[in-house]
Amino acid sequence: MTLLHPGDRFPDLAVALPGGETLHLPGALAGSFGVVLFYRGSWCPYCKAQLRAFQRSLDTLSGVEAKVVALSVDDEATTEELVTTLRLDFPVGHSADPDQLARATGAFVNDDPRYVQSTGFVLDPEGRVVVSVYSSGAIGRLVPDDVVGLIRYIKEHSPAA
Q1: Angle at 16 between CA 64 and CA 82, to 5 degrees
Q2: Pairing between strand 66-71 and 33-38?
Q3: How far apart are CA 42 and CA 152, in angstroms?
Q4: Do the Cβ atoms of 114 and 36 come closer than 8 Å?
Q5: Sorting pLDDT into bands at 50, 70 and 90, what band is 2?
Q6: 64-94: string of b/e by CB count within 10 Å (b at 16+)?
Q7: d(Cα 144, Cα 56) in Å, to the nearest integer?
Q8: Using CA atoms, how far apart are residues 54 and 38, in angstroms rounded to an integer?
Q9: Model pTM greater than 0.90?
Q10: CA dihedral 98, 104, 105, 108 (to 10 degrees)
């Protein structure tokens, strides 16, 4: 298992979306900062709180040119229900393979039941990791205010192009 570090290119991942579309990361986020959230499942209250928080912050995130994508091992129907219930306006993937995510990103995997622990990445507009947050349990995850603050800091302190 290899953890992703700042400056690493985010691996190519195909994210199955409800309705049959596939989102390809990091390409789908190219040109914007990206937030990639792996959540444990729709049953997890901490995950639902995180997804709600990112939904409430979409305007602020858009203001710093950031896009959000989330995914879990939940099946398509469960994911559709979660998106509807939480009124999520960002892409939420389903049916993720926990072993593939672990190999590609270093995410921790719970064995029984099998799911990916909360993991979050902030990507720069070129698809490189700015920060990675790995949790081995229920708590410890990215929050929107920290992401917005980090992106603002990067923009304010990056050399002029």
Answers
A1: 75
A2: parallel
A3: 31
A4: no
A5: confident
A6: bebbbbbbbbbeeebbbebbeebebebbbbb
A7: 9
A8: 13
A9: yes
A10: 30
Burial class (CB in 10 A: 0-12, 13-18, 19+), 14: exposed
> What pLDDT is attached to residue 20?
96
Residue 87, Ramachandran bin (φ over 0: left; ψ between -120 and 50: alpha; else beta): left
**Dist. CA 47–CA 124, nearest whole Å:** 24
Q: Tell me: cis bond preceding 113? Omega within 30 of 0 counts.
A: yes
pLDDT tens digits, one per residue of 63-101: 999 999 999 999 999 999 999 999 999 999 999 999 999
Least confident of 112-116, 119-123, 157-161: 157-161
Give, for 160, the enclosing helix (H) or strand (E): none
